[in-house]
């Protein structure tokens, strides 16, 4: 297993950060640091950064809510006190500059063309509402014909599915879901189903106006071949492509120029160590960019989405201001963000394979189709037969064994034996092997005791 990288602060690195912060007071000339560090964060420093975590719990569910280190929480508190000390000065002299610094860092991390393409919002669900609101207006105003199609994956996040229902279906759009196999064995299975969905979308003279594609699906989790699907959309004449990447930045590779989507949204509080709640919405520069508006209308309405999103009323903007501090934390690790992603991937695969070998089950996808999360089959004898069973078992694991892990129910095919329940395990820098051993031992104990989900009454 990949061990935690070793590190401590050094003077050159501190100077490097000072230089970067000085650069961030500018605009598009900002560059991320390229000077290599001479030392890296130690295991004890990682423990200190996450000492606020409940040590009695094996927290192998970073994917749901993410994590935030103590040094970033301290930086957040500084911003909060700066606002509380003199709100007017904060608003007029600090807020816009601070948000612009954060947007500039994100722009470079995701290889966007210009900082104007980056808006900061609360979360990926808010970003989806912005894009889908535009589609709704297009249907209502006659720019799209009633019955034109919007395509989404069957495994789209539940809140996004509801948003599509609220914005698209209600305004006259025709929604097509792309069925995906699970377990999945190859990218070709996903690509084939996606092509079929686009064919259905174009039937009877319809046009496919929008494709909503996950980068990393939530439950079950799998990395979608996003570049290939966007390319197919362009070939098939899909008007716009929105990539819902709630698990994007910090979890898998994110490159706007390589992906080529019109819109891309990712949370920064899941895998990028920000406090909740912050996400970015990338909108590729085009004449249609002016048609996008934040769903909360403020006095900044009409000044461009990035400016509208930077002020939606009096609230706590500190999560959007600590991005430079988050980058400082990330750069304490060997390889920076790329190094963290690589080690998370390697370790979660290793832990997933350890669990499936122990339980004689299977992974939900090949290792090269996962990032920092992977689906692990649970023993069939647990009797998971519904989504309600997954919720009850998850609660049981939390309350009786101190294990936090989400569980997915997969309906078995006719005559099929094997796992009907899959656990989605995550790995982040604070996790240790003991977390996964604790999960393994808990399931083994349940199996030895003859436990089945029918025994859980609530």
UniProtKB/TrEMBL annotation:
Gene3D superfamilies: Type I PLP-dependent aspartate aminotransferase-like (Major domain) (3.40.640.10). Residues 93-287 form the Aminotransferase class V domain. Keywords: Pyridoxal phosphate. Transmembrane segments: none annotated. It comes from the Eukaryota. The keyword Signal does not apply. InterPro entries: Aminotrans_V_dom, PyrdxlP-dep_Trfase, PyrdxlP-dep_Trfase_major. PANTHER family: HERCYNYLCYSTEINE SULFOXIDE LYASE, L-CYSTEINE DESULFHYDRASE. This is Aminotransferase class V domain-containing protein.
